[in-house]
Amino acid sequence: MFRGFRGGVHPPENKLAEKRAIVVMPAPKRVYIHFSQHTGKPAQPLVEKGADVKIGTKIGERDGFISSTVHSSVAGKVISIENYPHPVIGTSVCCVIESTDSDAWEAVAERDHTQMSTDELVNIIKEAGIVGLGGAAFPTHVKLSPPAEKPIDTLIINGCECEPMLTADHRLMLEHAQEIIDGATLFQKIVKAQDLIFGIEDNKKDAVDVLSKAGVHVHVLKTKYPQGAEKQLIKAILNREVPRGGLPMDVGCVVQNVGTAYAAYQAVKFNKPLIERVVTVTGDGVKEAKNCMVRIGTPAMDVINFCGGYVGTPKKILFGGPMMGIAQYSENVPTVKGTSGIIVWQHAVVDDEGPCVRCSNCVDVCPMGLMPTELFKAVKTKKFDVAKEYGVLDCIECGCCAYNCPAKIPLVHYLKYGKNEVWRLSRK
Question: What is the pTM assigned to this prediction?
Answer without folding.
Answer: 0.95
